[in-house]
Amino acid sequence: MPELTEEQKQMIGQFQAFQQQLQSILIQKESLRLHGMEMDKALEELNTTKEQSAFKITGNIMISKSVSELKKDLQESKEALEIRIKSLEKTEERTSSKLKELQDKLREIA
Q1: CATH code of the domain made up of 18-105
Q2: What percent of the chain has pLDDT over 70?
């Protein structure tokens, strides 16, 4: 097998870096999705409760808040979470595209 040029070594390094970046993005996205599912479950519970107040854990303490306030807080947090997931999805697409491009180039030189 012929010796790799400096450019080829750099391309391989970039490919590996993009693979790691993509893996990190996928892990973050999955974590956010799980957090979103927890928020959905909490909202579901708040929607079915007959209570006027509930507790929210803040740091090391629990604070009593009205159910409507808690719903509002959760919905706002969920919206922010969905924006973050969309941002990660766009980054995932760009990273996947760069990976495919580098993969094609590496196949040409192989």
Answers
A1: 1.10.287.370
A2: 97
Kindly report the pTM of this predicted structure: 0.84
Residue at token pair 């799980």: 34
| Residue at 13: amino acid letter | G
55 forms beta bridges with: 64
SS3 60: coil
Q: Distance (Å, rounded) from C-alpha 3 to C-alpha 101? A: 22
The amino acid at 62: M
In contact, 95 and 26? CB cutoff 8 Å? no
Query: Any residues with CB less than 8 A from the CB of 89 and at least 6 apart, and which?
Result: 29
> Distance (Å, rounded) from C-alpha 61 to C-alpha 89?
35
Per-residue pLDDT averaged across 24-51, rounded? 96
**CB neighbour list of residue 19: distance below 8 Å, 6 or more residues apart:** 99
Q: Tell me the C-alpha distance between 35 and 20, whole Å.
A: 23
DSSP run (H or E) holding 58: strand 53-58
